[in-house]
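Saturday, quiet lab. Running sequence design on the structure tokens for the scaffold JK sent over.
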């Protein structure tokens, strides 16, 4: 016994053989929708067409999801003004394109003692990018690098 639903079928409880015969007459498939129900629920449909439409929906959903691009800009604790401005212009371009920018100051050797310089450079970088993006995560030290992430303004 199965409960049969569908477009060209009267919703009712039928014998399994009768339901299969009805599906054959319409040249469609009998698909079990809810096996845990009592009696199980089946639907008469074109199963290949159903699978195709589901795959198509999944593709659309995947295409609509925004792909987050993260561009990385690396500075040093003693980065000069010219280099700073050069990298700043790159960061502005990245933010205008809609990408996130990960700015990090890399400390080589003993330069780790200038943590405050690194933080100052990152905060200055964030201040210069104020019109183009907002700071997602404030500067934090991870090993030999201090990292800050800037997201584009909508």
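Result came back. Writing it out in full:
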């Amino acid at each position: 016994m199965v409960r049969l639903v569908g477009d060209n079928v009267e919703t009712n409880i039928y014998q399994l053989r009768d339901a299969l015969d009805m599906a054959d007459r319409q040249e469609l498939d009998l698909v079990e929708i809810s096996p845990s129900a009592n009696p199980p629920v089946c639907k008469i449909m074109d199963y290949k067409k159903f699978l195709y439409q589901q795959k198509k929906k999944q593709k659309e959903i995947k295409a609509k999801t925004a792909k987050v691009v993260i561009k990385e800009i690396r500075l040093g604790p003693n980065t000069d003004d010219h280099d700073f401005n050069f990298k700043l212009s790159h960061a502005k371009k990245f933010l205008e394109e809609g990408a996130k920018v990960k700015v990090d100051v890399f400390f080589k050797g003993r330069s780790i003692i200038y943590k405050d310089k690194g933080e100052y450079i990152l905060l200055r970088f964030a201040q210069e990018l104020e019109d183009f993006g907002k700071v997602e995560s404030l500067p934090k030290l991870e090993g030999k690098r201090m990292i800050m992430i800037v997201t584009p303004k909508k």
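Notes for JK: The chain has a mean pLDDT of 88. The radius of gyration is 30 Å. Ask whether to fix the surface positions before the next round.
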